[in-house]
Amino acid sequence: MTIQDAPRAVFTSPYQNSVADYWNREKNPVNLRLGEVDGIYHHHYGVGDADWSVLEGPEDSREERLIRELHRLECAQADVLLDHLGPIRPDQRLLDSGSGRGGGSLVANARFGCSVDGISISQKQVDFATEQAAKRGLSDKVQFHLKNMLDTGFETGSFDGIWNNESTMYVELGVLFAEYARLLRRGGRYVCITGCYNDTYGLPSKAVSEINAHYICDIHPRSTYFRELAANRLVPTAVVDLTEATLPYWELRAKSPLVTGIEDAFLTAYKNGSFQYLLIAADRV
C-alpha cells in the first residue's frame, strides 16, 4: 500500500471485510495452477470452443494438458474484454477494478503499452500482483493498490478506460457506476464481463443461490446493470451474450482435477436459462 492510499478507508462494512478475508485466504488451484502455465494469473472463467483432445493421450500428462487448455480459454476471455475497450494509446491510462492477482492488468499493458492501475480489497492479491509486475520490470507502468472500487480516491477524469472482470457481484451497482462516471474522462469506455441472473426467470434460481453462497457474493439481475448504467451517464455501445461461449470451459473444468464443487451449479444455471454470462461495453457521455 502506498502512502497516497493509506489515509482512505478501504472497508466500509463488515461484509467488505468478509470479502477481503475470503480472497486473502484463497489458494484455489484452479487459479494458481493455470497461472503457472505462463505467469499470467487470472481470476475469471473462459470462453470459446474447447480442444477436447486434451482428454485423450497419455494419462501421466493428462492433467497438464487440461490445465493448459483451461488457461487458454481464460486468456481468450481476457482478450474478448480488452477487444471492447477500443483503441488505447500508450499515453493513456486504464483501471482494472477488482484486479485479482494482476493477470488482466499485465495483459492490457502488453497489448496497449499504456499505464494500468489495478485495485483490490485483498492485500494478499495486491502484494502478489505487485510482485508479478516487478518481475517483468513494469513497476512504473502497472501498479496495484489496496482500494475500494466504490470509493477509489483517484482523481476525477483520470482514466481513459475501466473494466470489471467478474467482480461487480460484490458491490452495489449504482454506487459503483457513479464512481466510474467520475473517474472516466468524457468519451472514456467502461467494459464488464459478469454473470447475472435472468429477470425473465423470476427470482434467483437454486443454482444461482448456490453460486452466491460459494463466493459470498450477490449476483445482480440483468436489468439492474442497464438501469444503473443509464442513471450514471454510461451508454451501452455493445452487449454480448457469452453464455453459450462459456459452456465449454465449464464442461471441461468439470472433467479436470481442479474441480471446486461449484461446476454443476454453473452448468445447471446456464443451461436452464436462469443465469447469463454478459459482456457490456459503455461510453461515458
Description:
The protein has 285 residues and is an alpha/beta fold. The chain is built from ten helices and seven strands. Strands 3-2-1-4-5-7-6 form a seven-stranded mixed β-sheet, with helices on both faces. Helix 6 (173-183) links the parallel strand 4 and strand 5 (184-197). Helix 7 (206-215) runs antiparallel to helix 10 (263-271). The radius of gyration is 18 Å and the shape is globular. The two termini are 32 Å apart. The model is unreliable at 1-7 (pLDDT under 50).
Which features would summarize this protein structure in a list?
285 residues, alpha/beta, seven-stranded mixed beta sheet, 10 helices, globular
Total DSSP helices:
10
Oligomeric organization of the protein chains: single chain
Which geometry do the CA atoms define?
globular
Query: Mean pLDDT, nearest integer?
Result: 95
| Estimated radius of gyration | 18 Å
State the strand order across the main sheet. 3-2-1-4-5-7-6
Number of strands: 7
The arrangement of helices and strands along the chain is HHHEHEHEEHEHHEHHE
Structural class: alpha/beta
Short description:
The chain has helices spanning 14-25, 29-35, 62-83, 103-112, 123-135, 173-183, 206-215, 222-231, 243-253, 263-271, and strands at residues 93-97, 115-120, 142-146, 159-165, 184-197, 234-241, 275-284. The chain is of the alpha/beta class. A 7-stranded mixed sheet has the order 3-2-1-4-5-7-6, sandwiched between helices.
